[in-house]
Structure formats: C-alpha cells, structure tokens
Design brief:
With 494 residues, the chain is α+β, with helices and mostly antiparallel strands. The protein is built from 12 helices and 29 strands. The strands form 6 sheets. The protein has a 6-stranded parallel β-sheet with strand order 3-2-1-4-5-6, covered by helices on one side. The protein has a 6-stranded mixed β-sheet with strand order 7-8-9-10-12-11, with helices on both faces. The protein is globular and about 70 Å long. The N and C termini lie far apart (49 Å).
C-alpha cells in the first residue's frame, strides 16, 4: 500500500490503540502531518477507558504539539486508519469509517482490509511509517517534531534499540535527526514518583515458578504502560525466562507479557491466557492482553486464574527440534498426497539469489534465504512453504494447466531488506503430487511446537487435532499440517 492511495479521501481519522504508547502516538502524528500538509480534514484520536496519563507521554504530546484527542465516538469519516494496531483487535475500540486502512508491525491477528501495510518483521511501527513516507519522497528530518516523535516511538518499542535486527530498524536508529534535549526529557520522565512506588511494591511481591522459569507479578491499578516497564525489569532477572505483570482494574485485568527464549512466543502466550475470556497478542518477545472481569468464575482469584493458564501453556505442549528428532515409525501412519493441483514458484523468479525473504505461513512467519534451488509452494488454502529443488523433483510433477488460486488470502512474500511485498500468484505455475514420496504423520493429542530445519529460531505451532509429519525419505524434515488441510490433501496408504 502507498500513502498516496489514501489521498483519494478528504475526511480522515487516524486511530491509535486504546492505550497509546510512544510508537503509536509518534506514527499517528507523522501520518496526521502528512495528510494535513495535503489539505485533508484529518483527526488523530484514541479511545478506551483511560486517557493518556504516563508522564513521558504527556510531555511528548505537549512538547511536540501533537493534536491527539481521547474520544468515545466520532463522526463517521470517509477513511479510518488504525496505526500500530489492527482494526477489530481487543485493544482497539471499534469506531466506524466508510473505508478502513491498517498500518502496523504486529503479527496479523485476523482479516485485513484491502488497504493495509503490515510488516511484522520490523521492531516498531515508527520504522514502517518512516519508510512509507520515504516512498512518497518525504524526509522526516525536514520536520524536527515529527522526526523526534518517530525516533522516540522507535526507541521505546525496541527497548532502547536492543530488540532490532532488521536493516530498516537500524537505519531508523542511525539516520533520524531528533531533538536531543526533548528525548532526554522524555527518557527521564518515564515514571512518576507514585508509579515508582507502585512498581517497587509490585516487584517485592513477585511469584516465581521454578519448573517453568516464569515470574508472576501483580501491580496496583496504574497506567497500563507501567505494566510493560515492570515486566521489562522482571525479565532482566537471570532465572526468569518469561514473566507476566498484571493489574486488577474495576472492569477487568490488564496484563503485560515478556519473554526471552525461543521456545515461548509472548504474543501466543498472551492470546492463550485470554482465550475465551478476553483478548491478547503481540510480538515474539513482548505482548499484552485483557481479561474481562465477568469471565472469571466467582471465588477464583485473578492470580490463581492466570497462574493455572500459564502452567497449562507450558505443560500441554511438545517441543520438537527437527534436526535432532528421532521419528518412531511405529507411532505414525503412512500417507501420500492426493493428485490435487497446487501452485509453485521458483524463488529466483521473485528475487535474486541470496535475498532473505519473509514467508507468511498459516502457522507463523518463516524467514528463508532464497537460493537457486529454493521453490515456494502454494497449498490448497493458500498456505505457503519452502521446498528444495531436489525434493520438489521427487515429489511433484509440473503440469501445463494454468494455476488458478481459489483461497481467501492471496499468498505473498516480503523482501526483508526493503520490506517490499511481492504477490506469488502472477509467478505461480501448477503441479501435482506424483505419489512417489510419502509422509509419516500422526494426529497431535496436545499442542506442539516444531523448530524446522528451515528456521531454528521460530517454531511452527500445532494444536490438538493437527498432524505432526515428516517425509519418509527425510525423517529430519519435520513439520505441522493443519487438520483441515491434511484431510483435503492426504490419503492413507493401505
């Protein structure tokens, strides 16, 4: 998506999530300025139960002259743009607009409108907004207030730049010209004295689970952003791999999750805890959520409820490292793919050899180095996965029939360096399974996390009822197949 596409609308509302942090505010301000300078009727808003209270954010809004307003409702605009969040998420009050757009850097949590730019491989939404502005020929350094807002958003969302790896995030850190005096002021106003007391009391009352190496901390009612500060500090403890900090409010429970090991995804954990009782999500390392008060059974304490769900998250899961996995054939059944047409794309038809790309699969994002022997497969539901040329030759037969995509979500990859989104469909050709290669598979009785030989830093997630599979000719090629896809694409070998 290009920002210039949004200039077709005159009446525009930019919406941050309900507890806007510096990243959301900075991005919203930059977009507001972009539209305002092009004579658009534009408003920058947020909703929810709490107005901005955190000292550094109050100063940020004041000193950078950011026209952000807290609202409970709005006049329906021609265009509603959610920034640093996705429309329909639990932390985004549902405001109405004729047309929707999404600009975000979190994992996709649901369906997206046609107008969207989501890059979950970036450390902050500020990096994404700067890049979108650059594509329109705008240098944020030409406006010191916008530059400072984006820089501060990037700094806070990446824990003072300790959580960046993408080149665009590094360029954002190194190239933006900001107001040093104001950044120091914001940095030194992160906590009020009252918030310092709340944080100190909370940390003194921590609970620790030695078996699963997680900490549970309760804080008194406070600005939700304080929960993140407490959880960041808790995670620095040497025996803590994961932590959850929560606060019981009049209308429910807000919580913040932090994680530092590859076997746990903070966003997944936040979602798991809120399943059926609220909403949660976020990044690999940091996330948050909300539990509705009325959903907790009477007589159950918030601490007991959260602790049990965290214990269940760690207990009901099998962690598999494909490179070291020892398949026991007697526990598996043999299957082969049905002769159904699927799509394939040669990786080098999309990008040059040696390019790193992000492949968005149904089970999670997968980073792959495109080389001459890498193919990208498109399954029957639009699922996307890599395949080496040698395995492709053994498993599939190209056919002359044109490839027709019939899925709900058009598959694409993103080139990692510049974040360019590339649709696979224009390059896709058809093939069918030749039936010569079979797989071994078994239905999962519990959740599973599989670190494939393709990506040893992020796992494929499998739920109860999905299938754990490996190629019969390569027992280290272990992966997850979603149950509905498995039923449609595989048949047992009798």
């Amino acid at each position: 998506m290009r920002l210039k596409e949004l200039l077709a609308y005159q009446d525009i509302v930019i919406q941050c999530h309900d507890n806007p942090d510096a990243d959301a505010i900075g991005c919203g301000f930059a977009l507001y300025t972009y539209f305002k300078n092009r004579d658009k009727n534009v408003r920058l808003v947020y909703s929810g139960k709490n107005e901005i209270q955190k000292s550094n954010l109050v100063l940020m809004v004041e000193k950078l002259h950011i026209p952000i307003a807290h609202v409970t409702e709005i006049d329906r605009p021609q265009l509603l743009v959610t920034v640093d969040c996705q429309y329909g998420q639990s932390n985004v009050t549902k405001l109405e607009g004729d047309t929707l757009a999404v600009i975000d850097h979190h994992q996709v949590s649901g369906s997206l409108p046609e107008l969207n730019e989501v890059r979950s491989n970036l450390g902050s939404c500020s990096t994404l907004v700067r890049e979108l502005l650059q594509r329109e020929g705008i240098d944020v350094n030409d406006n010191i207030e916008v530059a400072t807002a984006l820089y501060y958003g990037h700094m806070t969302d990446t824990c003072n730049f300790t959580e960046i790896s993408h080149p665009m995030d590094k360029d954002m850190r190194d190239d933006v010209k900001f107001d040093h005096i104001l950044i120091n002021l914001f940095r030194n106003s992160n906590l009020s004295l009252e918030e310092l007391r709340i944080a100190g009391e909370a940390l003194m009352g921590y609970k620790y689970d030695e078996k699963n190496r997680f900490a549970l901390v309760e804080a008194k009612p406070c600005d939700p952003n304080i929960l993140g500060i407490i959880s960041d500090l808790t995670l620095e403890v040497d025996k803590v791999d994961c932590c959850l900090v929560y606060s019981v409010l009049s209308f429910g429970i807000k919580y913040s999750v932090r994680n530092c090991v590859i076997e746990v995804n903070a966003g997944e954990l936040a979602e798991f805890i809120a399943d059926g009782v609220g909403g949660g999500g976020g990044h690999m390392g940091k996330a948050g959520g909300f539990i509705q008060k009325e959903c907790i059974k009477e007589g159950t304490s918030p601490e007991s409820f959260i602790k049990k769900r965290m214990e269940k998250y760690f207990a009901d899961v099998e962690i598999i490292y494909a490179s070291a996995y020892e398949c026991e054939p007697e526990c598996f059944k043999e299957y082969r793919k049905k002769h159904l047409p699927i799509g394939y794309v040669r990786g080098t038809d999309l990008v040059s050899s040696g390019t790193e790309v992000l492949i968005r699969t149904l089970e999670g994002d997968l980073e792959v180095l495109i080389e001459d022997d890498v193919y990208i497969m498109i399954g029957i539901k639009g699922e996307v996965y890599p395949c080496k040329k040698e395995k492709f030759a053994r498993s599939y037969q190209p056919v002359e029939d044109p490839y027709i995509f019939d899925g709900e979500y058009e598959p694409s990859i993103k080139e990692n360096k510049m974040g360019q989104k590339i649709s696979l469909i224009p390059f896709a050709k058809s093939c069918i399974a030749n039936g010569e290669v079979s797989i071994l598979a078994k239905k999962l009785e519990n959740r599973a996390k599989v670190f494939t030989t393709w990506d040893r830093e992020k796992y494929m997630r499998g739920n109860k009822g999905d299938y754990l599979a490996c190629r019969k000719d390569d027992l280290q090629d272990v992966y997850i197949i979603e149950k509905d896809i498995f039923a449609k694409t595989y048949e047992a070998i009798i």
